[in-house]
């Protein structure tokens, strides 16, 4: 039975070795910060920043032409002090970036259109700073408390076609916790 | 009687076939699942894109499921391997062959697989390293630069057109003059150039055909360079090149030219290869690790699949072999009611089916053999019974019989023939009769055989005299050539009858007849002679008193007459031997009385009487006393007044016989006289009548016995008279046997 145990352990470790995300994940914890915004009329405008989402390996991957896509989820809710909060609206927002080696620009793709960025810093800035408009149900009342909840995660890593047959999962595992921020009413 | 139940042999005792089948199915299904899952996971990216690991529970579940299945596969295969090793240690039938086959399969799969694994790993690592570290990178970088320069040059070629369009647009106050401006621009621009006009991040006018994707890309570029530079520049992108100019008033003029499709595709491929190269270079280690991991997985799958295949194939081989071995063992033990339960369309199935057919045939043949054997046994018993019957008959008759087969071998011989011809029957049967018989006897049979061949019926009967031991005995030889129904010679039967006794009896009978006639013819004149002589003595004695001759002559006549009377009496007694009157009496007492008489009359001789066994015997006292008297008289005569005589009376209760031995230490009897000792009127003694031993022989014969003579040790003669202690039943009495009645047997 010892031989069986050794084989099982070896095989498990071998399979775990196939999961590069577990070995390449960096120590900084990705998070959402500076959640703020306003709510007025039928929409809420939420600002937030994604921090520690791009590890040096991911930055290098971006430079190498790997498309990286983040998906953020923004929820707006009415906050009650002694009762359950009431969801008012939610939106999922996808943003990806890919380097175009021919034209030497970073192409940022958003739901509302593409943007070309000249360098990696600009690309990282655009990938980490968000302003999302969330349609909400009902009008915001002045003096009431509203809050936005935001979470982001790495959605896709666009490897070139041959590499997809080798890495059947993402190379990195990036996901933030829910971050909260109060929304101001006009 | 019911037939024994057929014993069905199926797989290894103690193994549940259904369980083994389930296990095989489990292993097969798990292996298939592992393969399917691995394939699915490998192609998941193509199906769903590069999704984050932790965000896709399906992938997580699939990987864990795959791990479980792989572990299960390893467990099942390893369990089977250990089970085989355990069976081998327990010396189960077929375990050694199975373990050897599995080991061979594992070795044959492991060694090349490991070599392939090492080679593939090295090749993969070397290939990746050489690809990312060699000149491929430089070539790709150079290629992308060339492509970029090509597009830049194309964009620079478009610059005059863009300038012209911008200048014309800014100089024209009236929009109606635009067509002329565009006309002049077209003359400056290369063929295929289009003009796009943007104002406030939107396309407001276009001159020429531009693909929508290019237009959208140009717009994106225009938007992205808002407020940049000195109001002019170039744009290159996927399949196009452009030169743009900002016109006072916010309008941007863009001269665009799309590349030919073939050239655009080539540039696109260069860009794609460049991206892939950089991605591979970035992911060098993970790629190698992935390849190694996949190779390890494949290697393990191959090894364990080969192991399981080895187990499976070994079982496919060993199960029928084991069944055949067990079946053969059963057959060797004599159990033919065995049937192997193994169904297969391969050669083993044929072999097992042949075995089952063979056992069935053997069983049928065994049944037939048993029936034949029983029949043969009955026949043999019958033959043996008949043979014993024939042998008993042959042994009970007084004729010696020798049966000789067609090859001249002795097929049968009875004890009488052994005794008559003085040959030993032990080991004689089956031997050539020429080797067994004496030359004279063989020649006699050969001579008779030749005569029989010429005689009608193949039978001949002759009287011949043959030397047997020191005697020459007369035989009546009857020889019959045996032939089957087809007339084929089968052998011959030779029957030997000893005529000595017959001839002796004939002589005795003849002598008795002679004695009777002599007695009759002599006795009749004796009485007148005696009476006449006595009368003459009475009448003429006085007249011839002075002449002694008369008295002497008459006295001599009377004396001789008296002697003749005695002789006639002897003859009469011999001729009129009475039939013995058997009675239960004390034989030793009778004999002792006779011995005592001779002890008195012959004081110079040592007389000794011995007795062994019980005294009561059935005999005729008168005749036995007479016989003993004759024997003692002969002994006394032979000793001449000196010597010793020992008379022994022996009663053997087991044999049921009585023997009277009279042994003397006299000079003995010459060999030449021995054959005629018991013949009447044979005597070497002066004055002897020669009837004493003939009478003894007759008395012994009348008592159902015999009398023999042999040499005494160290000297002298022994006469042995032997007869049954009890009279045989009347039906079994022979012609010369005594009878228990009052009758007298006449001559």
How would you portray this structure in words?
The complex is a heterodimer of chains A (186) and B (747). By secondary structure, chain A is of the alpha+beta class. Chain A is built from five helices and nine strands. In chain A, the strands form two sheets. In chain A, strands 6-5-4-3-8-9 form a six-stranded antiparallel sheet, covered by helices on one side. In chain A, strands 1-2-7 form a three-stranded antiparallel sheet. In chain B, 30% of the residues are buried. With 747 residues, chain B is an alpha+beta fold. Chain B is rod-shaped, with a radius of gyration of 71 Å. Chain B has six domains: 7-133 and 283-332; 145-264, YNR034W-A-like (Profilin-like, 3-Layer(aba) Sandwich), CATH 3.40.1840.10; 343-382; 383-496, PAS domain (Beta-Lactamase), CATH 3.30.450; 504-573; 578-732, Histidine kinase-like ATPase, C-terminal domain (Heat Shock Protein 90), CATH 3.30.565.10. In chain B, strand 8 and strand 9 form a beta hairpin. The interface between A and B is large, with 55 and 58 residues.
């Amino acid at each position: 039975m010892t031989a069986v145990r050794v084989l099982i352990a070896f095989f498990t470790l071998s399979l775990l070795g196939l999961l590069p995300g577990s070995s390449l994940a960096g120590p900084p914890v990705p998070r959402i910060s500076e959640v703020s915004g306003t709510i007025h009329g039928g929409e809420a405008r939420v600002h937030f920043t994604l921090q520690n989402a791009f590890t040096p390996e991911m930055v290098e991957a971006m430079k190498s032409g790997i498309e990286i896509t983040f998906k953020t989820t923004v929820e707006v809710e009415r906050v009650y002090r002694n009762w359950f909060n009431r969801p008012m609206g939610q939106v999922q927002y996808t943003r990806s970036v890919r380097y175009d080696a021919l034209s030497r620009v970073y192409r940022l793709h958003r739901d509302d259109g593409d943007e070309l960025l000249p360098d990696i810093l600009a690309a990282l800035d655009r990938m980490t700073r968000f302003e999302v408009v969330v349609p909400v149900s009902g009008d915001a009342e002045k003096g009431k408390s509203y809050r936005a909840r935001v979470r982001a995660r790495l959605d896709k890593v666009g490897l070139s076609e041959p590499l997809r047959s080798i890495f059947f999962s993402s190379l990195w595992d990036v996901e933030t916790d829910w971050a909260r921020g109060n929304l101001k009413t006009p | 009687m019911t037939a024994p139940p057929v014993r069905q042999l199926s797989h290894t005792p103690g193994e549940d076939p259904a369980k083994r089948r389930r296990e095989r199915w489990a292993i097969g299904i798990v292996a298939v699942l592992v393969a399917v899952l691995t394939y699915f996971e490998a192609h998941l990216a193509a199906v769903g894109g590069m999704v984050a690991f932790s965000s896709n529970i399906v992938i997580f579940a699939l990987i864990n499921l795959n791990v479980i299945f792989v572990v299960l596969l390893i467990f099942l295969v390893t369990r089977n391997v250990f089970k085989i090793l355990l069976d081998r240690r327990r010396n189960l039938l077929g375990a050694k062959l199975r373990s050897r086959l599995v080991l061979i399969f594992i070795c044959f799969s492991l060694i090349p697989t490991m070599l392939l694994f090492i080679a593939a790993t090295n090749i993969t690592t070397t290939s990746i390293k050489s690809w990312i570290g060699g000149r491929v990178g430089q070539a790709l970088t150079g290629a992308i630069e060339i492509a970029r320069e090509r597009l830049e040059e194309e964009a620079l070629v478009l610059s005059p057109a863009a300038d012209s369009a911008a200048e014309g647009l800014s100089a024209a106050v009236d929009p109606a003059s635009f067509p002329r401006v565009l006309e002049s621009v077209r003359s400056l621009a290369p063929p295929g150039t289009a003009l796009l006009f943007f104002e406030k991040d939107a396309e407001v006018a276009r001159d020429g055909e531009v693909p929508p994707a290019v237009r959208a890309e140009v717009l994106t570029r225009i938007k992205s360079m808002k407020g940049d530079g000195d109001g002019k520049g170039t744009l290159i992108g996927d399949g196009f090149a452009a030169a743009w100019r900002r016109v006072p008033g916010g309008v941007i003029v863009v001269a665009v030219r799309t590349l030919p499709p073939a050239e655009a595709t080539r540039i696109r491929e260069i860009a794609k290869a460049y991206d892939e190269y950089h991605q591979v270079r970035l992911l060098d280690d993970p790629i190698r690790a992935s390849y190694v991991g996949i190779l390890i997985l494949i290697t393990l799958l191959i090894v364990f699949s080969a192991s399981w295949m080895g187990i499976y194939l070994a079982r496919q081989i060993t199960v029928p072999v084991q069944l055949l071995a067990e079946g053969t063992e059963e057959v060797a033990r004599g159990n033919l009611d065995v049937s192997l339960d193994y169904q297969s369309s391969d050669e083993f199935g044929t072999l097992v089916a042949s075995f089952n057919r063979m056992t069935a045939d053997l069983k049928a043949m065994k049944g037939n053999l048993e029936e034949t054997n029983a029949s043969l046994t009955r026949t043999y018993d019958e033959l043996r019974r008949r043979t014993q019957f024939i042998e008993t008959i042959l042994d009970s008759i007084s004729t010696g019989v020798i049966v000789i087969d067609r090859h001249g071998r002795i097929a049968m011989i009875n004890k009488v023939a052994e005794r008559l011809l003085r040959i030993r029957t032990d080991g004689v049967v089956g031997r050539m009769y020429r080797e067994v018989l004496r030359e004279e006897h063989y020649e006699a049979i050969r001579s008779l055989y030749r005569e029989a061949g010429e005689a009608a019926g193949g039978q001949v009967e002759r009287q011949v005299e043959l030397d047997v031991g020191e005697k020459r005995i007369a035989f009546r030889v009857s020889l019959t050539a045996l032939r089957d129904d087809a007339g084929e010679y089968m052998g011959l039967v030779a029957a030997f009858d000893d005529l000595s006794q017959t001839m002796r009896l004939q002589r005795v009978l003849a002598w008795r007849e002679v004695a009777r006639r002599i007695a009759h013819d002599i006795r009749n004149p004796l009485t007148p002679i005696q009476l006449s002589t006595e009368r003459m003595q009475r009448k003429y004695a006085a007249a011839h008193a002075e002449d002694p001759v008369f008295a002497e002559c008459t006295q001599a006549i009377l004396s001789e007459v008296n002697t003749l009377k005695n002789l006639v009496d002897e003859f009469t007694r011999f001729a009129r031997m009475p039939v013995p009157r058997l009675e239960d009496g004390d034989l030793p007492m009778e004999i002792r009385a006779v011995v005592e008489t001779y002890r008195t009359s012959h004081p110079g001789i040592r007389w000794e009487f011995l007795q062994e066994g019980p005294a009561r015997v059935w005999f005729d006292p008168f005749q036995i006393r007479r016989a003993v008297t004759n024997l003692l008289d002969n002994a006394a005569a032979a000793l001449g007044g000196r010597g010793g005589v020992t008379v022994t009376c022996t009663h053997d209760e087991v044999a049921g016989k009585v023997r009277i031995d009279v042994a003397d230490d006299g000079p003995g009897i010459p060999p030449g006289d021995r054959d005629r000792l018991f013949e009447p009127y044979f005597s070497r003694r002066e004055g002897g009548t020669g009837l004493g031993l003939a009478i003894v022989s007759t008395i012994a014969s009348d008592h159902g016995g015999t009398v023999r003579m042999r040499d005494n040790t160290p000297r002298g003669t022994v006469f042995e008279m032997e007869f049954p202690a009890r009279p045989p039943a009347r039906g079994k009495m022979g012609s010369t046997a005594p009878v228990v009645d009052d009758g007298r047997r006449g001559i």
